[in-house]
TrEMBL record:
HAMAP family: PhnX. It holds the Pfam family Hydrolase. This is Phosphonoacetaldehyde hydrolase. Homodimer. Its cofactor is Mg(2+).
Length: 269
């Protein structure tokens, strides 16, 4: 049928880990432990959505971090430095990720509603397989389990912003057309992934990386601050090419209904 029959979801900041804190905090810790270099949570968020090795590389290319690196080590970050940071990051992330496996509020209910419509649930992540093999069962125990997941190092061609993880979900779920898929993500590389795969791409402005607050911080935030952060996040996600931007996954069924109407009238992403 000419309607959405699969959604492909990111993990941290989209379905689990409100605010996407598990990876950002570990990057800060890995930089400090390995090279005694301080980076902020805001800096750690900048390349979010990339594979973690590529994320570290991108952090090293940020002018402020490069300046600190030059001051500390007398040179810019090398591939060997990235390897050392990645090797420090991985065990820390594997241990900590289970602490961030709770589904974001409303996610289990949305997944159930989508499945009741016959929609399949795919997923992919900037996490490598070693992390996903810990996170996925922990999330399943707490109420969220997609039909399939792909890790950033599963495919030889690479991860985001390329389309390959999203397209691997299409293959494994047996989806008939990429135009019948929705990709949902809270970070720019994930939006690009969906666009590059030929899918409808939906950004999340409130639950994820761009908003950058814990659930508790969000609950205590003023309306003005929420709106300020929401607008900044939405502007960034729309600039990346998102067809829609919503607050959290809880609003996804309504957007899918609208997309189904557009598909029925002959529109494509």
């Amino acid at each position: 049928m000419n309607q959405i029959n699969a959604v492909i979801l990111d993990w941290a900041g989209t379905t689990v880990d409100f605010g996407s804190f598990a990876p950002t905090q570990i990057f800060v810790e890995a930089f400090k432990r390995t090279f005694d270099i301080d980076i902020s949570l805001a800096e750690a968020r900048v390349p979010m959505g990339l594979g973690k090795w590529q994320h570290i590389e991108a952090l090293g290319n940020l002018p402020a971090i490069d300046a600190r690196w030059q001051q500390q080590l007398g040179r810019s970050m090398s591939h060997q430095d990235i390897d050392r940071l990645y090797q420090a990051f991985m065990p820390l992330q594997i241990v900590k990720v289970v602490d961030f496996a709770d589904p974001i509020e409303g996610v289990p209910q949305v997944i159930a509603a989508l499945r009741a419509q016959g929609i399949k649930i795919g997923s992919c992540s900037g996490y490598p397989r070693a992390v996903m093999e810990v996170l996925a069962p922990a999330a399943a125990q707490r109420g969220y389990a997609p039909d399939h997941w792909v890790a950033t190092d599963d495919l030889a061609v690479g991860g985001r912003p390329g389309p390959w993880m999203a397209l691997q979900n299409v293959i494994m779920l047996g989806i008939d057309a990429v135009a019948h898929c929705v990709k949902v993500d809270d970070a720019v590389p994930g939006i690009s992934e969906g666009i590059n795969a030929g899918m409808w791409s939906i950004g999340l402005a409130l639950s994820g990386n761009e908003f950058g607050a814990t659930w508790e911080e969000y609950q205590q935030m003023s309306g003005a601050e929420i709106e300020r952060r929401r607008k900044l996040a939405a502007d960034k996600l729309y600039a990346a090419g998102a067809h829609y931007v919503i607050d959290t996954l809880a609003q996804l069924p309504g957007v899918i209904a609208e997309i189904n109407q557009r598909l029925a009238s002959g529109e494509r992403p």
